[in-house]
Structure formats: structure tokens, C-alpha cells
């Protein structure tokens, strides 16, 4: 007798179809023993019969409606009543390798099939409930949830830190907090030869998924959902969040919880305007053109003010050139040297730490404790509301108020953390002197570009490139830096120590640049 066959497995963890291959082999052996021949196999691999997802070959089987099919057991074919009724409509006979035959064209066969399906549905629901309890207990213990899954980037399967990936992730996180774009961080990981946990190159989406996962901060998040009717798609269901609880993870965190919150605020753009594109040079997008503007040969009396970008000559010499009219160009290396010398002179003056490391007067420990209390209280209120039969939609107004309170706390914490721009330099810098300047320069060169740019914009409210005489040697006095209030305080400290006599406000420093041909 010629038969069709159907094979299915809910989860194919290896991706090698071992489960369906085993079913296929058992069916072929059964057919050989009983004198049958399989004319066609219908196969749905890695698809559950109870998830509601479409099973392509199951649908094709119903459409073809063969007179008889053979399966390993009935639950490979169906496990819910609505699918059973569709199979009954075909009137086909179902042969089971492990349980005998079912003639669905007879009342007796239909009754048996309905009974078996009812118990299969019950088994699925019981298994789901047991799994939910198991997941909740595992979350409360802080167990790492990837024990039987794919290893997450930065961690080993046992929850310890990966020796290469974890430090690399910390490095790119620090760069992002310092102002780097996520695309820049992706490029750094790819250039280091590090792949995602699925062996692919990094892109913004895959890296953001890692950066926004509390797993890297050692936090286990347990979410409980329930299925509700989809208002936009009648006849279908969607998952609705019922509760969310955080537990300390039993694995080693890659970054602290505080840094994770700072990273989150940075990624969402709070307190930090988004850049149109990532900068590749120290003064790109910072320095402006100071050439006096003329209109029909009459001086208008204002500076051009156009931003400068970097370009290269045919000889490979980099220069900063006005982006408005291309009418003001300076040697990029020499221009940057002047600005860097002035930065180092200011931040290495004795006593600079008291000015630059002056964090806001914030009770940071109290803020962090307050945040923990708010989150804990909200979780309790949410659970109480659910127990009283209040839907998640009805708590939306209160949720927004809760999130607003957390956002205000996070903003203060972020402001405190943001002031750490200079905080870790004082253990590295030696106070400025001709002998220690090379050491300070070495430390400066090791900083990420984004952090250097933030330091420059913190110290100087403006960097203006004034035009020089055509054909003249590079003049450091044409690089004009206007002090910020912070830099003005440092300049006063320099005066007190007799280092340099520097004008307050818009400053032209001499003796710090090299006198070489422009």
C-alpha cells in the first residue's frame, strides 16, 4: 500500500534535523515490515504544533488530502483540537508507528483521536506551567539562562568572563560613553577580529542588542507574559507583559550597574546631542574659520565662522580647510600640536584637579539607593494590582509616572558620571614641567579620540583658525582658542605659579608651536 508520511520536531537545537531523520528512519522500517511504500514525506522541522505558527508542510498535507498517512505518533501530526478538526475533515486514515491505526472516517476513530488530542493539549499546558515555575525559580537564584543555549558574547558557558571578548566589550563601551558612535565601536570589534556569538560581523543592531541587555551588568531579568487577543488582527493572539522582576545574576558582570545606566542614557541620547556623523580628526567639527568676510570687496566686519574639515594634498599632507568657501587652510598636524600643547598646559597645572574634578554636589549613594527602592516598590505595586485583577493597560498611567521618576534620578546620576571626564587622569599625570611634558603627551595620545574632543570642547568654547600670510611659515598665533569658564580658572592658577602670562578670554599663546613652513 502506498502511504504519505509526516514528520515534525518542535525544537532542532543542533540545526542538523536529527530528530526528523530518526522519525523518517523508523517510519521507513515500519513500512518495510508491514508491506507499505512511502510515496512522499511531509516535513516541518523546528516548528511546534502548539505555538500557533504556520506549519508549511502540514498545510500542504491538508491541501493534498492523501487517503492514508503514517506518522511516528499522533502528537507529531497534531496536538491541539482545532488542527484535529481540520484533519478529520479530510477523512484520511492515520497509521502510527508507535500506537496503531486511526480510521478518522469512523466515529470510533474520531472519538479516540479527540481523546488523545485532549490529553496531548493537557500535557502541553502542564509542561508549560512547570517550565514557567522552573524559569521563575532559576531567575530568583540568578542562574545564567544560557546554560543550554548559545554562549553570549563576553561570557563563557559557565558564567565566567571570556578573556578576549569581555575586555574588548568594556573598551568599546568606554568609547561610546566618551562620545563614539555605535558604528565606530562595531568597526573596532570587526578590526580586532572578534565576531558575534553567531560568528558574524558586528553591525549597529547586533551591538545595541548586547549593550542594552542587563546581562552585561550582572542582572537577571525575569518577565512574565500572557496571551491576549490581538485587537488589530482578529483571531490571533499577542503576548502582553504581566510583570518584570530583576535579580542579582550569579555570573560575573562585565560592567557595573552604574556604568550600564550611564551607557543606556548615552545610547538614548539623553544629555548628549546626537552627532550627524562620527569625527575622524581632533578638530573636525570643532574648529571654525576666522577669515574676515568680504562682500564685493567691502569688509563685512565678521568672521566666516564656517566649520573646518580635513583634506589631503596630492603629496599626502593633511590640512584643515574651511568647509564654506575652501579659502582658509592650515597644516593639520601643526594645528593640532598647538591645541594639544595648550590643553596639556592647562590640565597639568598644579591644583587643576580641584577645578576639573569638581563633581556636582550630589548624594550619589542616596540616589542609587532611592532608585533601587523605587524599582522594588513598583514591582510590589504591579504584582498587587495583577492579583486584584487590574490589567496592565490600566496601570499605564502609573507606569509612565514611575518611569518619569526613574528618568529624573537617572539624569542626576548621569550628570554625576559625566563629570568624570578628567577624574582618572590625576593618577597618571605628573604636574607640568619641561621634563614631564613627554609623559603627559604619551598619556594624552592613548586616550580615545572622542574623549580628546570632549576635553577640547570643555576647555575651549571656540577654536578659531585665523588666516596666515600666503607663503609664510606656520604661525601658532593664528590658532586662536577662546577659554571656557573652567579654562579661565586654570589660566589664573597658571599665572599664580608664574608659568605663563596668558590673557583672559580669547587667548593667543606663543612659544608652544613650531616655526616651520606651512
Automatic annotation (TrEMBL):
<dbReference type="Pfam" id="PF07508">
    <property type="entry name" value="Recombinase"/>
</dbReference>
<dbReference type="GO" id="GO:0003677">
    <property type="term" value="F:DNA binding"/>
</dbReference>
<protein>
    <submittedName>
        <fullName>Recombinase family protein</fullName>
    </submittedName>
</protein>
<dbReference type="InterPro" id="IPR036162">
    <property type="entry name" value="Resolvase-like_N_sf"/>
</dbReference>
<dbReference type="InterPro" id="IPR038109">
    <property type="entry name" value="DNA_bind_recomb_sf"/>
</dbReference>
<dbReference type="Pfam" id="PF00239">
    <property type="entry name" value="Resolvase"/>
</dbReference>
<dbReference type="InterPro" id="IPR011109">
    <property type="entry name" value="DNA_bind_recombinase_dom"/>
</dbReference>
<feature type="domain" description="Recombinase">
    <location>
        <begin position="147"/>
        <end position="260"/>
    </location>
</feature>
<dbReference type="InterPro" id="IPR006119">
    <property type="entry name" value="Resolv_N"/>
</dbReference>
<dbReference type="InterPro" id="IPR050639">
    <property type="entry name" value="SSR_resolvase"/>
</dbReference>
<dbReference type="GO" id="GO:0000150">
    <property type="term" value="F:DNA strand exchange activity"/>
</dbReference>
Amino acid at each position: 500500500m502506498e502511504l504519505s508520511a509526516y514528520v515534525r520536531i518542535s525544537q532542532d537545537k543542533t540545526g542538523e534535523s536529527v530528530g526528523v531523520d530518526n522519525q523518517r528512519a523508523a517510519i521507513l522500517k515500519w513500512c518495510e515490515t508491514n508491506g507499505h511504500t512511502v510515496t512522499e514525506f511531509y516535513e516541518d522541522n523546528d516548528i511546534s504544533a502548539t505555538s500557533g505558527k504556520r506549519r508549511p508542510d502540514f498545510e500542504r498535507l491538508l491541501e493534498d488530502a492523501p487517503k492514508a498517512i503514517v506518522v511516528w505518533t499522533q502528537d507529531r501530526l497534531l496536538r491541539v483540537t482545532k488542527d484535529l478538526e481540520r484533519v478529520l475533515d479530510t477523512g484520511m486514515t492515520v497509521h502510527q508507528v508507535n500506537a496503531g491505526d486511526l480510521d478518522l472516517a469512523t466515529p470510533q476513530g474520531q472519538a479516540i483521536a479527540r481523546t488523545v488530542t485532549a490529553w496531548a493539549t493537557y500535557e502541553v499546558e502542564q509542561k508549560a506551567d512547570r517550565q514557567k515555575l522552573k524559569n521563575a525559580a532559576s531567575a530568583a537564584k540568578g542562574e545564567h539562562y544560557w546554560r543550554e543555549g548559545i554562549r553570549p558574547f563576553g561570557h563563557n558557558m559557565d558564567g565566567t568572563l571570556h578573556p578576549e571578548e569581555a575586555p574588548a566589550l568594556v573598551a568599546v563601551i568606554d568609547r561610546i560613553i566618551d562620545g563614539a558612535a555605535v558604528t565606530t565601536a562595531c568597526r573596532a570589534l570587526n578590526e580586532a577580529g572578534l565576531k558575534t556569538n553567531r560568528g558574524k560581523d558586528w553591525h549597529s543592531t547586533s551591538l545595541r542588542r548586547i549593550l542594552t541587555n542587563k546581562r552585561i551588568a550582572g542582572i537577571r531579568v525575569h518577565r512574565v507574559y500572557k496571551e491576549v487577543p490581538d485587537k488589530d488582527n482578529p483571531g490571533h493572539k499577542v503576548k502582553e507583559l504581566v510583570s518584570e522582576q530583576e535579580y542579582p545574576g550569579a555570573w560575573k558582570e562585565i560592567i557595573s550597574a552604574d556604568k550600564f545606566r550611564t551607557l543606556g542614557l548615552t545610547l538614548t541620547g539623553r544629555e548628549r546631542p546626537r552627532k550627524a556623523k562620527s569625527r575622524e580628526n581632533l578638530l573636525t567639527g570643532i574648529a571654525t574659520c576666522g577669515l574676515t568676510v568680504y562682500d564685493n570687496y567691502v569688509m563685512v566686519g565678521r568672521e566666516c565662522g564656517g566649520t573646518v574639515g580635513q583634506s589631503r594634498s596630492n603629496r599626502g599632507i593633511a590640512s584643515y580647510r574651511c568647509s564654506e568657501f575652501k579659502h582658509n587652510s592650515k597644516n593639520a598636524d601643526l594645528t593640532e600640536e598647538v591645541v594639544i600643547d595648550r590643553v596639556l598646559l592647562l590640565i597639568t597645572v598644579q591644583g587643576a584637579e580641584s577645578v576639573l574634578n569638581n563633581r556636582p554636589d550630589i548624594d550619589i549613594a542616596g540616589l542609587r539607593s532611592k532608585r533601587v527602592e523605587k524599582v522594588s516598590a513598583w514591582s510590589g505595586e504591579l504584582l498587587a494590582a495583577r492579583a486584584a485583577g487590574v490589567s496592565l493597560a490600566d496601570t499605564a498611567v502609573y507606569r509612565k509616572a514611575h518611569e518619569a521618576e526613574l528618568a529624573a534620578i537617572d539624569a542626576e546620576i548621569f550628570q554625576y558620571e559625566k563629570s568624570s571626564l578628567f577624574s582618572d587622569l590625576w593618577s597618571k599625570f605628573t604636574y607640568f614641567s619641561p621634563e614631564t611634558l613627554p609623559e603627559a603627551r604619551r598619556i594624552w595620545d592613548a586616550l580615545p579620540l572622542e574623549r580628546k574632543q570632549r576635553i577640547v570642547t570643555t576647555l575651549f568654547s571656540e577654536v578659531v583658525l585665523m588666516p596666515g600670510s600666503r607663503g609664510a611659515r606656520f604661525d601658532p598665533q593664528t590658532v586662536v582658542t577662546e577659554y571656557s569658564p573652567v579654562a579661565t580658572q586654570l589660566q589664573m592658577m597658571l599665572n599664580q605659579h608664574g608659568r605663563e602670562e596668558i590673557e583672559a578670554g580669547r587667548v593667543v599663546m606663543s612659544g608652544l608651536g613650531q616655526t616651520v613652513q606651512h
